[in-house]
Each structure stands twice: as structure tokens, then as C-alpha cells.
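Slide 14.
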Amino acid sequence: MRLALGLAAASVVLAGCVGTAGATLGTDNAAGQGETLTVFAAASLTETFTELADRFEEANPGVTVALNFAGSADLVTQIREGAPADVFAAADTTNMAKLSRDGLVDGSPAVFATNTLMIAVPADNPAGIATFADLAAPGVDVVVCAPQVPCGAALQALEAAAGVTLAPVSEENAVTDVLGKVTNGQADAGLVYVTDVASAGDAVLGIPVPEADQAVNEYPIAVVAGSEQARLGASFARFVTGATGRGVLRAAGFGAP
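Slide 15: predicted structure.
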């Protein structure tokens, strides 16, 4: 059974006491038996990276992968504060660049996927949302990502492209929190990624925004500097950027780099 490192676990990580949360993964030429790889990944990668970790496990018996999912900005903060991450996968290049400037990334990050925003509304669409401009109408409760979060930065670009400024009732630190408020009926609409709408299935209705192609987020991955599992981390990064990773990401709705 795979255990993900949540916020509570992350606080333990920052305190320097980490268990072996995760699933047992195997070894390839870059991995030795009994090793643990800790991967910090953007919240929007939860489903795909969980699947990729399972596949990496099948291909490499004997290694444990601990997955920590959160907003990219939160993950940057955790790594800066000393969380022992081996690999970081962000939902934009801006947050990855912060670690690169701090000397906390080994080598050059590789972009492995792209994503764009889409409106998500409850399945019955009670507010009758049909366009991006409808989200700015009086009485519409819309939830978005905070500006420092990749999906929030993308929203700012989308607002500029569409010529519409929203007045959200809430700004969240992870796109999964935005989606959660929509599916729980706490909002009339939310701005999430197309992949989030796909993963939500019948729980939400997705409404495309024509200008979304002017606010594309690129997803980079890199090995964290100082990792004791640098070779294994590089192997996982190659797995993500390789044929298996591309297939899983494409099936989930991500765009190619």
C-alpha cells in the first residue's frame, strides 16, 4: 500500500524525523535494494505520479518511494527549510527557478508536461456558467488559486488575455483545494486545470476558456541538490520524461512539453 506524505508528515520531515512512507519500488541499474526515494510533486500531479511511482516500483524491485503532494510554492518553502526531498516536480517553471537560484537543484530541470486552465462547475451548474465572463457576474461565488501558486499565476495571465478580472470568494494554496470546494458545493465555479476536470469525472462539468492557450503552465522536474539518492532520483526523472511517463501524462490530459 502506498502512503503519501501529507502536510502533517511534511512537518515531521522538516523536524528531521522521517519514516518510510511510500510503496516499495524496485531497482534498476541506478538503484540499489533497500533504498528510499522522496519525491515532492505539485498537487495536480497526484494521480499521475502515484501511477508512475507504482510503475517505477514494478520496474525496480527493492526501492521505496515517498510521495509528498502540495502546492508548488509550499513545496519550495519546505525544501528551502531543509526537507530531505530527492526529486522536485513543479507545476510551473517559476517555482523551480526559485530553487535553482538558491543552488538547491542539480543540473538543468527538464520540462515533462504542460497544462492549461478550465472552469469547473458542479455537475448541475446551478449558477448557469457558460463563459469566463460569467464568473465576474454579481452573486457568483468563484474559487481560484492564490497568486503565488502556479494555477493562480496562470489565472492572472488568463484574466489579462480575456480582459476580465474576477473577484474570488476564496484563494487556495493548491488546485486540489479549489476543485474540492466545487465538488463539495461550496462554490459556483472554480478555475482548475483541464486534468483536474478529467480526474473529477461526473462530479463536475468542465467549461473551456478560449484564451486558456495563452496561459500555459510548463511542468519541470529535477533532482534536489545534496540528495543522497541523486542517481536514483535521476533515474526516476528519466522515467517521468520517457515513454512511460509521457503515456501516463497524456492519458490524464496533460499536454506535451
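Speaker note: The two ends are 31 Å apart (CA to CA).
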